[in-house]
Structure formats: structure tokens, C-alpha cells
Design a protein that fits this description.
By secondary structure, the protein is of the alpha/beta class. The chain has 6 helices and 8 strands; from the N terminus they run βαβαβαβαβαβαββ. It is globular. The two termini are 30 Å apart.
Length: 197
Amino acid sequence: MNGVLGRTNRVWPEEWWKLVGFGDREKVVSELKVQPRPVLAMGSPGIWAHELKGLGCEWLVCDSGGVERARDEGEAMQIMMGEIVQRVSNSPDGGISIWFLSVARAWEEFQINGALAALESAREERLVDHLGLHVAGRAMGVASLWRFHDAFDVVMCRPGEEFESVLATARERRVGVVQDGGEPLGFGPVLREVICG
């Protein structure tokens, strides 16, 4: 990758790891000691947080926190704040480099506002460095959230038929793109799944 990644104003490694499972820990840890990279731990983040402590790996979270079930803005904010506190306490070095707000479909405006208020508060408290948007469903379902809320430094999306529309919006907003799997398309880092059997 050439240059900085969107609004993070930082250069990031070209390959990021999504750790699935928690076996083969010694092998994964030894590879990350040699070449630290951003890590998203699926399923067992607490175990990986302990193993990666002090290695200099950027810690990623990709979650909605259950905010899409909130009934008002206050509840949405409380749900997200609770999730942030839990995830920070289960991180290797007491912080989160990028929180990708995972959105699969359109949310109510109060849900969006509550989630973003909590994440912005966490950023001000230096618990979260950058905010990202994870397009977990159809890009059209996520478009309204992104169109009216320009709060994201990066966006993560799987390559496919809607990748171009996500890329176009990202360029328009000067937002970095993280490719969720697949062969590198040259638009930013690639998040690779690493099965830890």
C-alpha cells in the first residue's frame, strides 16, 4: 500500500490478520513477533489478547455491540459503551486501534446516533483510536448510515459486485478501504483469515 490509510493519517501494513480459533498459538505469536500486524481476534479475543500483549500488534474490533436492537438513543449508547468497556479490557495493551462498526442493514437514526456518540466518547478518552465502518450486508442497506454520518476514518468490505460503490464513496470522503478477504485489488490492506486449529 502506498501512502496513508484514509483519515487515520498513518501507513499500515498491507496484510492484516483475522484469527479464527485459538490453537497453534505459539506459531502465530512467533510470526507476529517477527512481523507485527493488525489483528482481529474472532471468538476468543481474551485468549489472544493475553498471548499478544506487548508485541505491538494493532488491535481491531468488528462488532455492532447489539445496538441494532436498542429502543432509543440512550439505550443504544449504553449498549455500545458496555461493549467498548468489555472489549478494551480484553485487548492486549488496553486500547483498540480501530473499531469497525459492523452494519448489515439499515438502522434507525436513534440507534446510529447512540452508537456513534459512544464510539466518539471512547475516542476522546483514547480507548479507541479510529472509527471504521464494516459493510456486513448489502452496501445499499448501509448507504444511508454512511451518507448522513461522516464519522468514519476507514471502511471494510468484502470484494464483490458492490465493492465498487463502496470504493467510490470512500474516495469521495477520503476514507481508507480495507478489503475483507480475497485476492488483493490494490485499494488498501487485506484482512486475511488465519485459521488457528
